[in-house]
Amino acid sequence: MEQRPSVAVLGVRGSVPVSGGAFLKYGGATTCVLVRLAGQAVVLDAGTGLLDLPSFLDAGEDRLPLILTHPHADHLLGLPLCPLLLRPGFRLEVYAAARNGLGAAEQVRALLSPPLWPVGPEALPSPPSFYDLPPRLELDGVTVERIEGAHPGGVSLLRLTGGGKRVVFATDCTVNGPGAGPLAEFAQGCDLLLCDGQYSDAEWPERSAFGHSTWTAAARLGRACGAARTRVIHHDPGHTDRLLDDAAGELRAIHPDCAFARAGEEIFL
């Protein structure tokens, strides 16, 4: 039986994972989401939230595509310890756009190899396979399209379409100012927009060059593109549950169905 279209949020923290009682509601794991459209599951990014992926899969699922938006460490840290890569016969197919002349495999090995990590990905019991991410990728009923976002080293902003539903994943990008225009067009009319909103308006003047956005800019983008729902992602490691709860009203004042994403939530489309 085909599962209902959904997005499971496995990790939404940015920069580094965090832990402790101040981060229980929104979670401390770094970025990873599981999208289900037209019966096809697609994983986006491999932050430490990837370690929770098995609990969101059916027993018979033994092949998954994983799309990396970019190879910064917080978006890769979950890959070497992903329990699925210890399962004989499991197939993880990793896609990434070329960065600094490096293909998908080379990007991952730059972090997951000695001396930064004891072994490379090929030493895992079920090593992943690697592929270049084209501008348009067809995955068994799901179309994945990408455009470039404003972020140091580059980032792929992703649009997934399947079964009459559309999800846009725009992490690690600056949408304060001119960057919002192309993304608003790309995300027009989507069912769910997941957008970077790491900083408050007060923090923005000192952090505007870091390649992220304010949460109010993310909410405005959701309103501008007509997203049915918007979730702000890539929470700053210093932003506690209380801080995000206190800021939630700023989002709703701009876009009625905009909220800070929470690790562990499943959004049905």
Q: Unreliable segments (pLDDT under 50, ≥5 consecutive)? A: none
Q: What's the count of strands?
A: 14
Largest sheet composition = 7 strands, mixed
- Determine Rg (CA atoms, Å): 17 Å
Helical segment count: 5
Offer a quick outline of the entry.
The chain is an alpha/beta fold and 269 residues long. Helices cover 16% and strands 28% of the residues.
Describe the structure.
This protein is an alpha/beta fold. The protein contains five helices and 14 strands. A seven-stranded mixed β-sheet has the order 6-5-4-3-2-1-14, with no helix packed on it. A seven-stranded mixed β-sheet has the order 7-8-9-10-11-12-13. Helix 4 runs parallel beside helix 5. The protein is globular. It starts with 5 loop residues before the first strand and ends with a strand.
Looking at this protein, list some descriptive labels.
alpha/beta; 269 residues
Secondary-structure map:
Layout: E1 6-11, E2 32-37, E3 40-44, E4 63-68, E5 91-96, H1 104-111, E6 129-132, E7 136-139, E8 142-149, E9 155-162, E10 165-170, H2 180-186, E11 192-196, H3 204-207, H4 215-224, E12 230-233, H5 241-254, E13 258-260, E14 266-268
Parallel strand pairs: 3-4, 4-5, 5-6, 10-11, 11-12, 12-13
Antiparallel strand pairs: 1-2, 1-14, 2-3, 7-8, 8-9, 9-10
